[in-house]
Design brief:
Elements lengths: L8 H14 L3 H22 L3 H8 L3 H8 L9 H11 L3 H4 L10 E5 L11 H12 L4 E5 L10 H8 L7 H15 L5 E7 H9 L9 H18 L3 E6 L9 E4 L3 E5 L3 E5 L2 H16 L1 E3 L4 H14 L3
Parallel strand pairs: 2-3, 3-4
Antiparallel strand pairs: 1-7, 2-5, 4-8, 5-6, 6-7
Helix pairs in contact: 3-4, 7-9, 8-9, 10-13, 11-13
């Protein structure tokens, strides 16, 4: 590289990703090559071009493209070739070589939107339910913003929605029911983490729950006791000490993607490394849990007693 050459941040990231992949062991390089050939074939197919047209579109010789796709090829493509394909076809380099699960974007922002169709899910909720279905067989890891959605009563959902125009209580109730139904299905593996303080605040009617009626809080605790008992061990709810650990609201759909909740908006990450990092952080919450899943119903019963003593 010439001293006066300017390299963009994106190009530096591509170079870093490729160099890390290319310096792996021989077995891993074979996996990368196999993934590249499979995904290159998909890109060509999706482009609706034949090989000659595709090669011209990305600036390659027809013979070079044929060699890259050949079953006898044992060499990884050059960095320049990868970046040319990625830029021309609007896919990520790390997806092309199998380091990410989604091609066009590594991160996407989804704004919460209102659906005006009767009994329809809100836009984001449709995605979340779809991703749950795609992740059947994988472990789902979930940190809710308040209480776990699938464990909420209708009264609590309506209280939280309030006068917000971006989504209706009915849509959120339908979404909670869909999540609960999914959790009751076969091959479901669902882990959830909350701070113990968030449950204690709910029982006392503190913070955001100060205007929720006492009877609604007691009913919510009864509902959670019943479902936690029914769904264990499919659903495992861990409670950590919020003084020792902090977690942002997130749902991790196995190795496929992670959706960070930003308040009426989701940041969706599909980069393999991003998903793995968030998974490690979630697993650290579990290691630090002060209430384990089998003990959660008993803890909730204690909180129910406290809630009954509180005045609305």
């Amino acid at each position: 590289m010439q001293p006066n050459c300017v390299v963009s941040d994106h190009e530096m990231w591509c170079l870093h990703t490729i160099c890390c992949a290319y310096t792996t062991s021989v077995p891993n390089r074979k996996v990368i090559l196999s993934a590249f050939q499979e995904r290159l074939g998909k890109v060509i197919h999706d482009s609706k071009m034949n090989r000659s047209q595709f090669a011209e579109a990305v600036g390659l010789d027809r013979s070079t493209l044929s060699q890259l796709l050949s079953s006898t090829n044992r060499r990884l493509p050059r960095i320049e070739t990868l970046t040319a394909i990625a830029q021309a076809q609007q896919v990520s380099v790390d997806w092309l070589i199998g380091l990410s699960n989604t091609g066009p974007m590594q991160a996407e922002l989804m704004n919460e939107q209102m659906s005006f169709e009767r009994e329809a899910f809100a836009h984001n909720d449709e995605h979340l339910i779809s991703w749950l279905r795609e992740a059947v067989g994988y472990k789902i890891r979930y940190v809710p913003s308040t209480l776990p959605d699938l464990l909420k009563t209708e009264a609590v959902i309506r209280y939280e929605i309030g006068d917000r125009a971006v989504s209706s209580p009915e849509q959120k109730i339908e979404t909670a029911a869909a999540r609960l139904a999914w959790t009751r299905g076969p091959e479901t593996d669902f882990e959830c983490c909350n701070s113990i303080q968030s449950i204690e605040m709910f029982a006392r009617g503190a913070g955001i729950w100060s205007k929720l009626e006492q009877s609604s809080r007691v009913a919510q605790l009864d509902h959670m006791i019943e479902l936690c008992t029914e769904l264990y061990p499919t659903l495992r709810w861990f409670l950590f000490d919020g003084r020792d650990r902090y977690a942002s609201p997130v749902t991790i759909f196995g190795p496929l993607r992670a959706a960070l909740y930003l308040g009426q908006m989701y940041l969706v990450l599909t980069s393999t490394e991003h998903v793995r990092t968030l998974t490690r952080l979630f697993d650290d919450l579990i290691r630090g849990a002060v209430v384990q899943p089998p003990d959660v119903p008993a803890f909730l019963k204690q909180q129910r007693v406290i809630a009954q003593r509180q005045r609305s």
